[in-house]
# Entry
Amino acid sequence: MMLLKKWNLSLVFIFFNWTTLFANDCEHTEIVTKIGRKSMKEVSGLALSRSYPKVFWGHNDAGDGARFIAFHLNGKRLGRFKLKGALNRDYEDMSFGPCLKSEGDCLYIGDIGNNDLTRTYVTIYEVPEPNPFSKEAQKKGHVKLKNWKKYTFDLKEAHNSEALIFHKFAQKFYLFTKAHRLTWEKYPKNKGKTFIFELDPKKNNVKKIGYYNTFLFKKNQKKARLKPKASFVTGATISPEGDKFTLATLKHGIEYKINKGKEPFKPFPRNYSTRYRFPRFDGAQIEAITYDQDGKSIYVFSESTLKKSNYLRLFKVNCQKGTSLKHIQFKIWEFFN
# Structure
């Protein structure tokens, strides 16, 4: 009987790793454009507009003020916007979707970073999407916005997070924690885990709905345990249709399928379906990602720490088979950087 139980457990383990090993790996990458670092210094949140074609929204990490920036697919900066009266303790991610408190679309900016594990609450700002082509936006300086809303959620325990999505059908936020070094020291049992919190803005409810073992994001799990930093969850994005989401690590995008109803995480998606290979270059740190309009590609922003570079680059990654001239150009650039 004991031998049978061990055999059954081994079968489950083999099946789980088989499905993980043969998930779709996607690595067709192109350099879309480059953005001057004057405004975009350390991008940690990214969203693609639905109303304004080829317009992206992005924000920097902590220390940059309560602001965000619009830029075009061609690399041109369109305007800077500031949330009047708001704070930026540590903006770490941005999501996009229908507004909760008004008509139209909104940007949801997550003040969710907590590197020192000193607080238990997170703040999410709901900002109606402004017009990036307005005369005011084209002027020097910032457009000051007053029509934002704030949601504060108490997780009841200290977590650091850099990943947030808003599900338009559930009308809820989903927060993914980052088990960084300080987390391991304080809570050793959380090493290699990213917890998922469901945040309900209507009821102000917080619910922990599960977790992922981030070591399983890599094929070589032994190496992942020795160098767990490569599996940190540093960002997230949800598809326009609300049927899948991708978590960013420093090296990969891990995509899971979810249902489009009011309970997207029921059943809880255990195995990922797709893994995107992120660009590798000196100083690479990927935190800002967003889906394309068709949900078939993801845009990835480099958060390069290299002072010698005057630009940050926007990449596009998808599952296209074969190669292309733009992909070859990217591989050459990657080799020399």
In short: Confidence is low (pLDDT under 50) at residues 1-22.
